[in-house]
User: Fold this.
Amino acid sequence: MPVAQSKLSALVPRLPGLALASSIAGAATVVGRLFPIVGDPVTGIVLAILLAAVLKPGARLRPGISTASGFLLQVAVVVLGSQLSLVQIVRVGISSLPVMVGTLVVCLAAAYWIGRGLGIVDDLRTLIGVGTGICGASAIAAVTPVIGAAGVEVSYAVSTIFLFNIAAVLAFPFLGHLLGMHQHAFGLFAGTAVNDMSSVVAAATTYGAPAADYAVVVKLTRTLMIIPICLGLTISGLMSDQRRTLSVLTGPFRVSLCYGQIWRSLRRRPS
Assistant:
C-alpha cells in the first residue's frame, strides 16, 4: 500500500500537464485528419507554441509537460520502432549508409570552417557539428563529457538544434510535396536531414506512414555514428593533451574500447 500511495502521489502533480498535452494531441489529430497535407505533428507543434505564447504555462503544468515530452515521447518512438523488421532495418541501413556518411562529413566540415570564420569556440563548433550531423541533443549529450564542454556551450548547441528541428518539421513536408518526392525518398531525406528522432518522426509521419517507417530506420542507422565519432574525439584529445583522459568515457564508449581490446587479444593468440 505505501508503494502504491507513493506512485499515486508522484502521478498527481503530473496530471494537469498531461491533460493539457493530451488535449493538444487530440485537437492536432482532428485537424490533421481534416487537412492531411498539414498533418498531426505539425499541427500539434503550432498549437503548443501558440498556447505557450498566450497562456504561458506555469509551474503547475511543468511536471506533466516534462513527462509527456520526455518519457512518453521516448515510449512512442520505441513502439514505432518495434513495428519494423530486422531485415528491413539492415536493408535500409545499408542502402542509406553512403548518403549518411557523406552528409556527416559535410556537416562536421561545415561546422568547423563556418564556425571558425564566425569566431565560435572549438567545443561549441564540435557540439553543433555532431548535433546536426548525427542525432541532435543525444549526440551533444554523448560528446559533452568526451570533450569537456562547458554548460553554456551545451545550452547554446541544444538551443540551436531545437530551433532547426522545429523549422524542419514545419517546412520539410511542404518541401517534399513541392519537389514531388515519393515516400522512400522523403524518408531518406527526413532521416538524414532532421536532427532528433522525435522531429524525424514528426516530419516523416506528416508526409506518410511509409516515409515514417523508412525515416526511422535511416535515423537509427545514423545514430550509430556517434560511437566512432566519440572514440575519434577521445583519441584526438589524448594525442593533443588538451582533453580529458579515457576515464571520461562511460556506457557504450567503454564497451567499444573493451571490444577493441578483446579483438586485439584474439589476433595475438597463436594459431
